[in-house]
Amino acid sequence: MADHLLEVRDLSVEFHTAAGTVKAVQNVNWYLDRGETLAILGESGSGKSVSASAVMNLIDMPPGKITSGAILLNGKDMLKMSAEERRAINGAKIAMIFQDPLAHLNPVFTVGWQIAEMMTTHGRPRDKAAARARDLLHRVGLPEPDLAFGKYPHQFSGGQRQRLMIAMALACKPDILIADEPTTALDVTVQAQVLALLEELQQETGMGLLLITHDLGVVAEIADRVVVMNGGQIVETGNASEVYHNPQHPYTKKLIAAAPGSGEMPEESDRRGEPLLRATDLHKYYSAFHALKGVDLTIMPGETVAVVGESGSGKSTLARAILRLDDPSSGQIHYRGKDLMTLGPRELFGLRRDLQMVFQDPTQSLNPRMTVFQLISEAWAIHPEILPRKQWRDRVAELLTKVGLKPEMAVRYPHQFSGGQRQRIAIARALAMEPKLIVCDEAVSALDVSIQAQVIELLAGLRREMGLSYLFIAHDLPVVRDFADRVIVMKSGEIVEEGPVRQIFEAPRKDYTRALLAASLDPDPEIQAARRTARMELEMAVSA
Amino acid sequence: MSATNTQTSDAAKPKGLVAQWFALLWADKFAFFAALFLLIAVLCAIFGPLLFETLATKQNLRGRNAPPFDLSRGWAFILGADALGRPLLARIVVAARNTLLVAGAAVVASAVIGTTLGLIAGYSRKRAAQWIMRLGDVIMSFPSLLLAVIVLYMLEPSIANIVLVLAITRIPIYLRTARAEVLEVRERMFVQAAKVMGASDMRIIFRHILPVILPTLVTIATLDFAFVMLAESALSFLGIGIQAPEITWGLMVSQGRPYLTNAWWLSFWPGLAIILTTLSLNLLSNWMRIALDPTQRWRLEMGGRKNG
Amino acid sequence: MSKFIGKRALASAVSLIGLVILVFFLSRLTGDPTDLYLPLDASVEAREQFREMHGFNDPLIVQFGRYVGDLVQGDFGESIRQARPAMQVVLEAFTWTLALAVITMTFVTIAAIVVGSLAAFRAGGIFDRLATFFSLIGASAPDFWIAIVAIVIFSVNLQWLPTSGTGSAAHWVLPVAVLFIRPFGLIVQVVRGSMINVLSSAYVKTARAKGVRTLPIIFVHGLRNAMLPVITVIGDQAAAILNGAVVVETIFGFPGIGKLMIDSILLRDFSVVLAAIMISALAIFLMNLLIDIAYALLDPRIRY
């Protein structure tokens, strides 16, 4: 049997923690050949990054410990090599890029220096390294590549920083590139560009690409083969298309079923009568920056309106303006006919009950020093007229049951829950106010796909049961497809397109909406291939 | 990770709060003995003057500069006697009160005032916030010890004045820390969530912001206690702090200075008391930095084998 | 940048003016120094003449007006004790203290960075434990006590080093060594804490993935980032020596500004006290400016 380019055999890694030993991965096997792309797919805590860290010798020992297995590079076991041999491989033979390029680039050195350092570290003379760094900046498609050399990481955008990371990783022409969630923090259109660049560079150099991701769409877009991980073990492995169409393991099936954007779209809602909330001509300036440029918005009772846009589109500013967390610079907001902008503090305080918010990151939005009981009952401490104190305990139990948690969890603190459970607590807290409208600001973006589906299901159930309306802010179109009645697409502080969900998805009128739809990744490799063709054509059309 | 956390705290719950903290303290042996030493020092400060006042002030001219480790005169003379034949051990125990009282009062006063001002400066966007910061800058732009020297020379070096001077010079520490923390915490999502619920400013400050920044401030105050004690000791040593017949450890070091060449113990023991107390405070503050931070606490919960 | 400096200078100037006024009036309220300078048996006329000469008979507000008038012309008054311009006396003393501060802080900075960085690299190891423990003791030690213990050991018993004065290099050893201890203890801990944070940062992970060697990771990638919080502490400690080496200067008879200040207050030499305050304030201002410049040089994200 010929040696694979890189092969992980029977690898097990443990970490020692406060609660005892955690088996991060157990008996993991995979291999990567020249010119192919292998994806390791898994949700948070699945151990999908651990074997890559072991390959790069990035596991701190202690607390980590490799208990069994071998990592073969061209047939030679890296775990038996000296630290110096491992160091010489890193960067030169195997390079790695990471999820958050801003954090992973050193903030106090110029990017040119950091790219050149990759080469000087592996023995290239300084001047040659600098020259090649300049070439690389051209190759990865940065605007003004000659000026970029002397700039610092904070002077670039997220997508550009990932291009810089790629330039750095490829400086020594490695045989293998490991990409750990390389596009997770990026906007969909930028994600598509970065993935395309990776593919192009792979074809140019013939390197093996190991991609670690939680996103079925990314797998569909770029991977040849896929390894599915759950709870530190490989549950399924095979050809990307086969695994999608014919999953064997229940976990894989569940994961594919949870992928957003596959269910029925809601029918068009009835928009006659008095709207619940109407915003007209909202403007917001942050000193010179014009964040909202005349936005109009109407929400009917019981309706779910989604606002979709990439970073900087002003969608979160809109949400904050409607709740008067950040007062808009001009414009009107009417709630059931009352003008929110002219209300005094006391009337506004009364209206707070009706308008509630669920934030993106429940870890941040729940006070870490309060118990679940305190968190939920705070609503009634602030608005005592809702509920007399002696009924608090029962009502908290009731609300916890309603969001799918257990009443006895009321005594716990937020850090004792998982991400999905925390978001349920945040929803229970919003419900305690008995609101009419809940603003969800990226409320499911930080959650794993399967959890995301559960939380959306919960929100939909509450809508049916309690007649709630939602303003649902998201950066991702598929997420809102099964859930929203209407969709508003925003870009640079303006509404690009608005309409019923079916019209937006099936007959978008504006190029930007079409570009967004084309850039969002479908979990089905065949559909994704078709989309890619469509996207290329669109790009041609736009550039022509 | 969340699942594992659940287990540990469930297991810890039945033990009760006191036992839980004791376990955290026991996990860091240095901190444990530091806390024990400080407890003894505080007991000395509370009960020492009641029990040993007469012993500590009784002159005995035949026992002048009696050497330490000689038990023939009784246990009180184990550390030797001073230039007037008074037992050093008893004097150190009695002096604990003034030493700890001055430092403690100054720390409490500066922490309360500084934190209050810092909360206002951090939370309010009004003009007052600007003025509070200027005030902090003004105090910071002068050397604290020198300022103390000047003011204490001009005013009377009474205990109240010393506390006042030391407290004023330490206010900026709390002011700046509290403000910086408030500025950061104020933008956190859970504060925004409270605002959406209609929480008042007072509620946000006292229920949401203060509990989050308090551990940092307590840690700093512990460290600062050591600093203030050193400053008071230096003032007393220079002769412009507490005046005889009152005694503090710093003053005792100073009183022993003329006899350095033939009776080193006069200055040595009170100096050792100072160094042990400040060292204990430093160790305890280091421990608090970990123990009061929920994301760091596991280091201690893991037990003694991984602390450091 | 110049706008930023201007704002800072203004804030410092305002606080300085406030303090000068405060000290001026407080100091005169405590009585005039005539009795301190004239012999006990000096005649009433001689006393009156001394008061007249130094202007202590005029109302306070007139004295203050005269002081400010002289100040505007660059005259900081006369030292009563030394009978020469106060500023001259202060600047002489300040030069000594400056030298002391620069020498001490150079040693402290180098030693603390090396020890703190290496301790952080193997956090929890034996070197780290020793470094942490000794730096804690250093940070806890009262300098006056260290000073007199050092004198007993090195000057009295071993007779290796002189007890006081400034004649030779040997005279500098004890003051520098004593002043070294506390800042060293403090800064080692700050370097260690900062370095531990930096070494667990994402960009150090990148550097490891690039195959960068250990020493460049610590001293190139790590140090420049880790220095940011350290710089502030170095500045504070340097300022503390510049202004507050009172204890050490007094014990070692070192003719610096701290000792001068104490002596001048004792002898009610008002002009010298006020001039010393002004120089101190200027030194602190420049020190803070230096820190801000160092910040901007180290971190390209900081712009004023």
From TrEMBL, chain A:
Residues 8-256, 277-517 form the ABC transporter domain. CDD domains: ABC_NikE_OppD_transporters (cd03257). It is a peripheral membrane protein. The keyword Amino-acid biosynthesis does not apply. InterPro entries: AAA+_ATPase, ABC_transp_ATP-bind, ABC_transporter-like_ATP-bd, ABC_transporter-like_CS, Oligopep_ABC_C. Its main location: membrane. Keywords: ATP-binding, Nucleotide-binding, Transport. GO terms for molecular function: ATP binding. The keyword Transmembrane does not apply. It is found in: Cell membrane. It comes from the Bacteria. Belongs to the ABC transporter superfamily. This is ABC transporter ATP-binding protein. It comes from Paracoccus marinaquae. The lineage of its organism: Bacteria, Pseudomonadati, Pseudomonadota, Alphaproteobacteria, Rhodobacterales.
UniProtKB/TrEMBL annotation, chain B:
It comes from the Bacteria. Its main location: membrane. Residues 96-285 form the ABC transmembrane type-1 domain. It is found in: Cell membrane. The chain crosses the membrane at residues 30-52, 100-123, 212-242, 262-284. It is a multi-pass membrane protein. InterPro entries: BP-dependent_transpt_permease, MetI-like. Keywords: Membrane, Peptide transport, Protein transport, Transmembrane, Transmembrane helix, Transport. PANTHER family: D,D-DIPEPTIDE TRANSPORT SYSTEM PERMEASE PROTEIN DDPC-RELATED, OLIGOPEPTIDE TRANSPORT SYSTEM PERMEASE PROTEIN APPC. Belongs to the binding-protein-dependent transport system permease family. This is ABC transporter permease.
From TrEMBL, chain C:
Residues 94-291 form the ABC transmembrane type-1 domain. The chain crosses the membrane at residues 9-29, 93-121, 133-157, 169-191, 212-234, 240-258, 270-298. It holds the Pfam family BPD_transp_1. It is found in: Cell membrane. It comes from the Bacteria. Keywords: Cell membrane, Membrane, Transmembrane, Transmembrane helix, Transport. It is a multi-pass membrane protein. The keyword S-adenosyl-L-methionine does not apply. Its main location: membrane. InterPro entries: MetI-like. Belongs to the binding-protein-dependent transport system permease family. PANTHER family: DIPEPTIDE TRANSPORT SYSTEM PERMEASE PROTEIN DPPB-RELATED (PTHR43163). This is ABC transporter permease. It comes from Paracoccus marinaquae.
